[in-house]
Specification:
The chain is mostly helical and about 160 residues long. The protein is built from six helices and no strands.
Length: about 160
């Protein structure tokens, strides 16, 4: 970013340093959000498998249901074909293709996810405020906004 903005004086260098820090903070928070979603998806699948198996075994056979769920979860983790089959089975009574897993996943992490979303929004606000502050240096502001927006856009995000 420093090379694309090319600050011309000490004040611009300070602005650039702050902008870099805020931009990377926002990017790190987005990566944290994606990691939370991925981790909660695994926990949700395991929990849904246990619930499904619990309905299928006689009363008092919780250990059997747990063992079956662990085995199915291992298959889900290691075998792509079985993963699709298991997900289809878990989602067969939901409205959409992946709704049951998404709902269970969200229920696992909704508080943490909201906290990260607020942190992302706050980081965005601070970055935008800094960019507005440098707008009076029109040409510098244009270079800074372009470099910061490009950096945020380059961070890959994977949604489940």
């Amino acid at each position: 970013m420093l090379e694309s903005i090319r600050p011309k004086d000490f004040i611009e260098r300070l602005f650039v340093r702050d902008l870099i820090d805020l931009t990377w903070e926002e990017c790190r928070l987005r990566q944290i959000r994606e990691a939370l979603l991925a981790e909660s998806r695994s926990a949700a699948v395991e929990r849904l498998l246990y619930r499904k198996n619990l309905r299928e075994v006689p009363e008092g056979a919780e250990r059997i249901a747990r063992a079956q769920a662990k085995e199915q979860f291992k298959d889900w983790t290691n075998d792509r074909a079985k993963q699709k089959e298991i997900e289809k089975d878990l989602n067969k009574h939901s409205q959409g293709e992946d709704q049951a897993i998404l709902a269970a996943s969200y229920s696992e992490i909704h508080k943490e996810l909201e906290s990260v979303k607020k942190s992302i929004a706050f980081a965005q606000q601070r970055r935008m405020a800094l960019l507005r502050e440098v707008e009076h240096r029109r040409e510098f502001g244009q270079r800074a906004r372009k470099a910061s927006d490009e950096a945020v856009a380059m961070i890959p995000t994977k949604s489940p």
